[in-house]
């Protein structure tokens, strides 16, 4: 029989307990000896009258058992294994996340990049059945995650995305479009006479320092069945671009050739035109993530395709047993007192 833990990270706390338990046990033995040094014997007798060291140890053992059982329950023990065939319906979607230095501007808190990441994560939480990929770009583009239905894995790549992942600066939209096209070709579903797969690129960028030719390439992609949506990230007032050390401490702000502080502003007009040429929609990133609802609504309007059926593994949950035992022990622990009754004390 297959036996596993779904949330195995909780089991690491058992290692912490393995270190703490000897210390707690030693303290139970040591504390009475410390009392003997600091208190007069006549006072100590009054203070410890009826106090049972044995009962204190029993209570500690029960409490420890409860903690261990709760950790096991949180780790979600599972047994058995079965497979369920599921049908997946959606579109193929690639997020293009701008990782240029200007995305570190803080006119949108905590930064443009952090807000763009949150928008992607929020949208992933609302999607179902879509094949999704992730591209990071600046002066060039890199496929951070190929098309997948495993959103949790994609979120790991999203969390680690930073300007350090791209070797050259700038905002090369054309490179993204080429990389996305290759991702669709390699990991996507081919169109046939019966079904046509809807493919979408969603750019999240401040639109600064874009190269020429991106708009024409967007039109070319539309002719190949790929639509482009755009999310402008930043404010019209703009903000300086912070320079931080390896510990995250602010060292100063980016300056131009004349030693003037660079103020980065969102280029909404370019992003809007990019979406228009790409037969998609434009949105503006906001702190409350309201643009996510608009993106979700527009994506759901697009024609969806039934992808190849997949097999979902299912396991039987067994967390109830350790949880139940823990609750019973917790009740028993409340009944065990550290002091003996007067009857037993006088015997």
Explain the overall architecture.
This protein is α/β, with parallel strands linked by helices and 347 residues long. The chain folds into two domains: 3-76 and 319-346, no CATH class; 86-309, Rossmann fold (3-Layer(aba) Sandwich), CATH 3.40.50. The protein is 43% helix and 23% strand. The protein contains eleven helices and 13 strands. It has a six-stranded mixed sheet with strand order 5-4-3-6-7-12, with helices on both faces. Strands 1-2-13 form a three-stranded antiparallel sheet, covered by helices on one side. The chain has a two-stranded antiparallel ribbon with strand order 8-11. Strand 9 (242-244) and strand 10 form a beta hairpin. It is elongated. The two termini are 54 Å apart. Residues 342-346 have low confidence and may be disordered.
Could you say what the CATH topology of the largest domain is called?
Answer: Rossmann fold
CATH class designation of the largest domain = Alpha Beta
Question: Under the CATH scheme, which architecture of the largest domain would be assigned?
Answer: 3-Layer(aba) Sandwich
Report on the biggest sheet.
6 strands, mixed
* CATH homologous superfamily placement of the largest domain: von Willebrand factor, type A domain
Average pLDDT number: 83
Distance linking N and C termini: 54 Å
**What is the count of β-strands?**
13
Question: Rg to the nearest angstrom?
Answer: 30 Å
Give the SSE order as H and E letters: EHHHEEHEEHHEHEEEEEHEHEHH
Widest β-sheet, arrangement of strands = 5-4-3-6-7-12
Q: List low-pLDDT spans.
A: 342-346
Number of helices: 11
- Tell me, briefly, the overall form: elongated
Instruction: Supply the helix-strand structural class.
Output: alpha/beta
Tell me the count of domains.
2
């Amino acid at each position: 029989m297959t036996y596993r833990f779904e949330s195995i990270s909780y089991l690491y706390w058992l290692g912490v307990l393995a270190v703490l338990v000897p210390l707690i046990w030693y303290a139970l033995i040591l504390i009475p000896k410390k009392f003997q040094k600091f208190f007069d014997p006549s006072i100590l007798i009054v203070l410890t009258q009826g106090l049972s060291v044995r009962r204190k140890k029993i209570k500690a053992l029960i409490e420890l058992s409860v903690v261990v059982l709760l950790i096991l329950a949180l780790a979600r023990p599972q047994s058995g294994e079965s497979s369920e065939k599921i049908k997946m319906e959606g579109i193929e979607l690639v997020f293009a996340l701008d990782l240029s230095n200007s995305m570190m501007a803080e006119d949108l808190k905590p930064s443009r990049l952090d807000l763009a990441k949150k928008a992607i994560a929020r949208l992933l939480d609302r999607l179902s059945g879509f094949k999704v990929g992730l591209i990071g770009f600046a002066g060039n583009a890199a496929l951070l995650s190929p098309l997948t239905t495993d959103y949790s894995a994609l979120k790991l790549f999203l969390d680690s995305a930073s300007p350090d992942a791209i070797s050259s600066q700038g905002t090369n939209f054309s490179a993204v479009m080429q990389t996305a096209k290759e991702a669709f070709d390699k990991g996507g579903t081919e169109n046939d006479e019966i079904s046509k797969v809807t493919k979408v690129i969603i750019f999240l960028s401040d639109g600064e320092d874009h190269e020429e030719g991106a708009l024409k390439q967007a039109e070319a992609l539309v002719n190949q069945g790929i639509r482009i949506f755009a999310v402008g990230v930043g404010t019209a007032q703009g903000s300086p671009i912070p320079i931080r050390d390896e510990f995250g401490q602010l060292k100063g702000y980016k300056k131009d050739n004349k030693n003037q502080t660079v103020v980065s502003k969102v280029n909404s007009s370019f992003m809007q035109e990019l979406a228009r040429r790409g037969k998609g929609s434009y949105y503006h990133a906001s702190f409350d993530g309201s643009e996510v609802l608009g993106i979700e609504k527009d994506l759901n309007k697009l024609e969806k395709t039934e992808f190849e059926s997949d097999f979902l593994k299912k396991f039987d949950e067994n967390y109830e047993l350790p949880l139940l035992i823990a609750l019973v022990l917790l009740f028993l622990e409340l009944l065990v007192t550290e002091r003996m009754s007067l009857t037993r004390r006088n015997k």
